[in-house]
Amino acid sequence: WRAQYSTRPELPKEVTINSKTYPVDAEWFNVSSTILNLTSRKLHLQKDHPVSITRQIIESVFPSPTYLSYNNLDPVVTTHENFDSLGFPPNHPGRAKTDTYYINSTTLLRTHTSAHEAELFAASKSPGYLISADVYRRDEIDKSHYPVFHQMEGARVWDRNTVPNGDIVAAVHRDLDALPKHEMIIEDPNPPFHPERNPLQPSHTPEEAEAVGKHLKRSLELMVAEIFKRVKESHARAGVKEQDEEPLKVRWVEAYFPFTSPSWEMEVWYQGGWLEVLGCGVSQQHILNDAGVPNQIGWAFGLGLERIAMLLFQIPDIRLFWSQDERFLGQFRGVEGNLGKLRPFVGFSRHPACYKDVSFWLPAGSTGAAAAGGKGREGGEWHENDLMEVVRDVCGDVVEDVVLMDSFTHPKTGRRSFCYRVNYRSLERTLTNEEANGLHERVKGEIVGRLGVEIR
Ligand code: FA5
Ligand code: MG
């Protein structure tokens, strides 16, 4: 019966992505054909696509020749580029097969644009760069997460050997003063660095880290100010009343990345909650040292282009970006060449949702400690990203979200049980209950067959 349910392609010997061929390793390969098919889409380069329009608006805030743009870097990278070069420890959960799409043990679909930092810092063609690219992650299913999305990475360095008097602090301050001002109120209660939570690097002086951090934050604030300016204009054009606009709220929160310190994330208020739009920080000096530019010091950021595009066009659900429906794409036509045409997205009527629950026991001996979003785990253990992947393979984009409702440990046997709610809703049409039932039955069959769970 497994074969009957299986939507999984036969394990290929090799895969070809963007006309390059890679050998597949049975132990590591976990890229479904759904995902492989998306590697050619490159929404950030598709004319008049909201992701491409967003990219161009942000590029205008980081102009050449200070910032050079790289928009065609290959999505297939090595584990060294994606993880080791950035200082990810060997046991970092991001490396697990449950989180990352592998082709073989040393080759993967990049999980972030930071995979290209070492290469571009080494190339040293300009004081700054921008990279826009498709990135891949096995992740949860909801309105702001998708397994393929687009990031823009930015970086800026200053070189002790070339700034006047070797004075980095003065040079950064001069560049900061040359940046435009903005009038947004930004919530930023954070100190420039913090000995435990957000430490200064040993090779940086407090003044250097503070100056670089200020230049970084101002640059990114100017980026969101530009986005909000475009939102305001588009609202005026579409006749949206001021009282119907969402309050404009932006905040900085402390964060952690293996490749920056101190680090922060920017969050923006959107549809009644805080939406994380980017991560950033002062680049770890070892990356610049390893890239052969130990005299440089600088910052880097990585933002989610879809998340910014959601703010810019008021797009409510990340699945829409993949729509080929003219009712979606038609709304952006002509905007790339003329931002004066930018208008808020008008949603198509919302089709009804259909919830279905699935409850199951984990295979005996599986603790499922990581199931509820917890990170650390061993290979072979239960992880909810595996469930998400099955749901995506079986249902494609007709699932809006998958939410853990309940978990339970049997007092005698110690076995773990979970109940998840799958919300079926198409963006494009009304699903019949029979259709949703059929999908749900297939999801159940697949999780039994692939994950070894027992339906309750
Ligand atoms: C990173 O990927 C870091 N490389 C960012 C960075 C670069 C930090 C340089 C410091 C220096 P993170 O995993 O938080 O960080 O992702 C960055 C952004 O990508 C998030 O803020 C969010 O906007 C977006 N993002 C993350 N996961 C998804 C997803 N599944 N779907 C859509 N957007 C996502
Ligand atoms: Mg993050």
Automatic annotation (TrEMBL):
Q: Has keyword ATP-binding?
A: yes
Q: Where in the cell is it found?
A: Mitochondrion matrix
Q: Region annotation Disordered: residue ranges?
A: 191-212
Respond yes or no to whether keyword Nucleotide-binding is given for this record. yes
Using the record's annotation, list all stretches that form the FDX-ACB domain: 349-456
Q: Name one GO molecular function term.
A: phenylalanine-tRNA ligase activity
Q: Which UniProt keywords apply?
A: Aminoacyl-tRNA synthetase, ATP-binding, Ligase, Mitochondrion, Nucleotide-binding, Protein biosynthesis, Transit peptide
Enzyme class label:
ligase
- Aminoacyl-transfer RNA synthetases class-II family profile domain residues: 133-344
Q: What is its EC number?
A: 6.1.1.20
The reaction(s) annotated as catalysed by this protein in its Swiss-Prot or TrEMBL entry are: tRNA(Phe) + L-phenylalanine + ATP = L-phenylalanyl-tRNA(Phe) + AMP + diphosphate + H(+)
Q: To which protein family does this belong?
A: Belongs to the class-II aminoacyl-tRNA synthetase family.
Query: How is this protein named in the record?
Result: phenylalanine--tRNA ligase
Organism per entry? Podospora pseudopauciseta
Gene that codes for this? MSF1
